[in-house]
Amino acid sequence: METTNILIAFYSRNGTTEALAQAIAEGARAAGAEVRLRRVRELVGEEVMAKAPGWSENAKRMNEQYEAPAEADAEWADGIVFGTPTRFGNVSSELKAWVDSLGGLWFQGKLVGKAGSAFTSTSTPHGGNESTLITMFNFMAHLGLVIVPLGYGDPSMFAAGTPYGASSVSGQTSAPPTAQDLEVAKYQGRRVTQIANALKAGRAAS
What we know:
Shape: globular
Oligomer: single chain
CATH superfamily: Flavodoxin domain
Number of domains: 1
Low-confidence stretches: none
CATH topology: Rossmann fold
Structural class: alpha/beta
Mean pLDDT: 95
Strand content: 15-25%
Number of strands: 6
Number of helices: 8
CATH architecture: 3-Layer(aba) Sandwich
């Protein structure tokens, strides 16, 4: 059986969303996927980043660790998992800018029928986790992805996360995801891989 390719394209400022991305990658690999972890880049300069303590340092570290996502990564993938911190209950401009760059693939229909899923983090318990996840469903629908929510198909879902995708609350101290948050993220990686694999097999059969 062919390997299932999973792209995890995310933006993270302080490392919380990054930790969820790594757990999703772990779950996907456990399900047999080949994974590409990609961090989208900043849209602002150093003078703006300097106003938020740690932003520049974290960006430098992550940009050295992860390549930026490219159109070729999306075309390669059988499933794409999008990750972002919430920005006023919505998607970060950094991730959205990369999504907007996929117009060429959209026009050619090259993403149609692949799996798509989403994860997020916020600093407050009601800071927009679910609205941000659902907002990402909108652009996934336009790209033709088959949206893969989590539902309650795993025991971890009764302790953390949302039925729409993995999430975490970092508070004002940029706390990392809890162990329960990470279990949900691992489940998301496994689930997206399983669905992406089934969709790939269906496309091959047709």
